[in-house]
């Protein structure tokens, strides 16, 4: 299993200034090794969205002797030394960020950048200056990286890279990536980060140049951030730049049937943004109210997958040309359905999570299912949930068990929650997320010690279908792309369809039921990679609001039922199938239809026999040697005592199919111990003497 570290390294009591991380020191590698890390995320070489020349200096720049004395190194040197310790640094490619910073420069020498000090008149440094060769004298010229220049989709030479690549409002104004801007810093004019658009071929060519420098710097891994750009521009109302307009026009022309709204409109030079403006629509109106909104979001969903594939293919192509293969990680944020089409393109999935809470085992089971056997590494989200509150408690010397739980929960569910190392706290909090070093080492070393009894595969007998096509619009139309009336008032889409997937997996988790999330893809985005044989390992399959399934997926379910499987259906099923087809599933003797989500748990098998209650969660890991391990987390936190209430004498039974003769207990802060085990009717039972935050029982 991967053990990630969120290696921003932002300074304590300082804002987290994107995109370039603080310089690295050799002593950091000692910390990372003691923390048991195997991979670093958001870990370096982020300055490409300032300029390629800035990135070059991050990677290969000279380090003054004064800083060498204290172990400072450039990023390529740090990458080499970390790799020598068995730690893979995944460099970060910010796909949505295009920066301009306030600066003070005299005779080409930078006297201040970002934080001004009155040493010279204020100017700016970033992508514009890079493309116009007006940046610092140390910067290599634009032509060094692009000898032929860059030509946009209109056939024009690019003269202002910053203005070229930005996403735009209906009226053509630039959109900004506000979530990474720190405003009002120093005495400067303020930093500005444009929201770049991956639909723009110029930006994709620029990102490929960023990737080349990363690979030349020796990175073992590349992490692509903001992988849903420019779909994420819906937060501000949507992108209407020239390349989104052109792409949407092509999408409409390829439709088998022209939308009714365009019956009298020629598509030859159709401009969606201008068409909306002519009808009176303006920025500040909820895009869900725009005509063709459903088609527009569909176009963007297809586009983000296609452009992402282009970049990942280039990573592998260029790395191979250098004889230096690299792994690819994608930040798939909250593991939303539109990321499913990108999973095949990466080696590691990274999730920031929409919300970080103290109890969300169902989220990690979902993410492991989406990952389809690939490692899932999570990091906390500073804008959603408990991170800031937890940091304050840790700084007061409290909440150590709560912190342990945030890490152990993911491990128990077959994922990895990265340890923070100066990780991001957003733009409003003047601090970064550090935990006491001894605590980080303690937790990381325990994860390392249980690696052989940890897996992202299970023996669970219940599968919950993640119906990508059914849940796609519900996700896009949700408040995920909404910012509290800041940009527009939220309005429910008139054609919204209900979904109960998240409610279902939370219900199962709180009912002590274990399950796997099984993806039914949107076949317009990627083919279904399951078959009935793969489903037959589950005795029960749950279908939550799977109203949009393909014919092949429907046939697979029929075959599963005919082979003896049980189906539990909640809500609509197969409403897009030909007339009469759905009854082959709904009327099948092995199908049960429920009206309430709360009915589902009782219809699924009890793989774990125990009185766990809602303040616990468990998962059964299938190990490489054919044995299994029960992973159990205890959420019963006593606020006054500031610790987890121990559960003593907890008897747990696990349904097994292999012979079990021994049981070994792993728990934080203790050596592994043998436990008596009894097997009756296929249930291996043990009594755990004390369960504090986390317990693993290896049945072999």
Automatic annotation (TrEMBL):
InterPro entries: Class_I_gatase-like, GH. It comes from the Bacteria. SUPFAM superfamilies: (Trans)glycosidases. Transmembrane segments: none annotated. CDD domains: A4_beta-galactosidase_middle_domain. Gene3D superfamilies: 3.40.50.880, Glycosidases (3.20.20.80). This is Beta-galactosidase trimerisation domain-containing protein.
